[in-house]
Design a protein that fits this description.
This protein has 125 residues and is an alpha+beta fold. The chain is built from three helices and nine strands; from the N terminus they run αβββαββββββα. It has helices spanning 6-21, 48-62, 117-124; strands spanning 25-29, 31-34, 37-41, 63-64, 69-75, 80-86, 95-96, 103-108, 111-114. Strands 4-7-8-9 form a four-stranded antiparallel β-sheet. The longest helix has 16 residues, at 6-21. The radius of gyration is 15 Å and the shape is globular.
């Protein structure tokens, strides 16, 4: 789960913005992973509506230009899992603007990384 610390917020926004700047995709919170693949459910406790609202607010307020992400809580019986669908952006690049950060990320097969100058040129043209 992404907490409220600066590092957690930046990591969350990096994951979301990198998907929008690349091919889009899904982010699942509350799922364990092994070697980059989902391996088991790890349901989250607490109020799912409150957590969905918090994540939606982070996306809305922490990424420029704003992007659309669909955030849903999925009940599991012992908690919930959050699924986030991020579409490929028609207007990249999107940058992280929260918590004194000004960085642009993209996603490749091995994860998210900061965009190079050449990748930024391609996104801007």
């Amino acid at each position: 789960m992404y907490g409220g610390s600066d590092a957690d917020v930046k990591e969350f926004l990096k994951d979301v913005s990198s998907l929008a700047n690349s091919q889009g995709g899904h982010l699942l919170i509350g799922v364990d992973e092994s070697a980059g693949a989902a391996s088991a459910l790890a349901p989250l406790p607490g109020d799912p509506d409150k957590e969905v609202a918090r994540l939606e607010n982070l996306i809305r307020d922490g990424i420029e230009p704003r992007l659309t992400a669909f955030v849903r809580a999925i009940p599991t019986g012992t908690g919930f899992v959050i699924g986030i669908r991020v579409a490929r952006s028609s207007y990249p690049p999107h940058r992280i603007s929260a918590r004194k950060t000004n960085r642009i990320f993209v996603r490749g097969t091995s994860g998210s990384y900061e965009a190079s100058i050449d990748e930024l040129r391609t996104m801007f043209t």
